[in-house]
Design a protein that fits this description.
466 residues, alpha+beta, seven-stranded antiparallel beta sheet
Length: 466
Amino acid sequence: MNNYKTLDANDREFLVSLLGEERVFTGEAISDDFSHDELGGISKLPEVLVNVLTTAEVSEIMRYAYENNIPVVARGSGTGLVGASVPIFGGIMLNMCGMNKILELDEENLTLTLEPGVLLMEISKYVEDRDLFYPPDPGEKSATIGGNINTNAGGMRAVKYGVTRDYIRGLEIVLPNGSVINVGGKVVKNSSGYSIKDLICGSEGTLGIVTKATLKLIPLPKKAISLLLPFPDLDKAISTVPKIIKSKSTPTAIEFMQREVILAAEEFLGKKFPDNSSDAYLLLTFDGNSTEELEKDYEKVANICLEEGALDAFIIDTDERKEAVWSARGAFLEAVKASTTDMDECDVVVPRNKVAEFIKYTHLLQEQFKVRIRSFGHAGDGNLHVYVLKDNLSDEAWPKKLAEVFDAMYRKSQELQGLVSGEHGIGYAKKQYMFDQYEPEYVALMKNIKLAFDPKNILNPGKVCE
């Protein structure tokens, strides 16, 4: 355990001399929002919160923290789900949200260079207005791009387009000792040494602080259409997915959902889903540049699904129907949350052909542990979002019940050759499950990588592999 310095008046004075009084907050002036992310149960306020605006400021603060052995946590919108941005050792929190400028759109190289505090929804609007497309599509549109990079966020369009890491061309990073380095760039290919850029992407703020990113863009597909397919049961729905993928009609997204989650979303939003009578559904999207191309793809997939036991195929092509379906899908998490007193999430990823087996297992756990479990997720890439709900369990019984259910679920994911997290990361909350999953040599390697970047362990300590 590091003996971190407790901040005193001199440290505050240094920060004020660098940033001015109006960007340095201590004590009562720090909003409770900065003590936690979207995960309940883990909270701790920083000793000082600072709003940073430039790479030079981040560099100066890190240099000072490094010399004085002060822990530092960088934070974006705070929408994480594993406690990764909670300052569990106090110290300094850098609020990165003010670093929110789009710096350059390079239409010849198809890249967008921006600061880490730009929100995902701002990126999509900015590039789509210019007929370009940034494909990663995590559900939380108010997350910052810095947060997306640090968790290697995935989202629904990963089936066709991949995840955040696939769209990071270059990064500017401040290291724990205050040095600034640039990795990658605008180049398409790179075999020039170890890929530090890819290590930073998904490192949850433990190796360096991203202060600038260059993203890869693609031309915007002109047309999109969705297909909603009710099935008599989840087994039939999920077993159809490998056949869809093999058909070469690559959907942009393949989501699965069950009736109880749709009903929760209807109640939460106060509006109807196009169909809520079936036990299980697949929701697919297709995008492309011509109506003919799309029709060929979705007709082929609709026929496969009907042959495999789908009860119907609803084409979602009007704006009104798209809104009804996708607003419901977007509200699943909030709807489930609104239906209970507290919850925690298991964000496992399993091979695509094991999704139904894993979800069926969660139904058994509901019975065994007498607890409500709700799930939905990305059938096309095997990433499941499984929520264990507290309901009327007491504060004493809840952690124990949660641990038992999670142990069972993570054991099952291992048995099915899956992994602990598909897109939300490890942070503070999921460390033990990751340690149980990886052999000691793997964890030792991760710890040595952390040591190489951060020998004093001051950057977001206590997260991921510690």
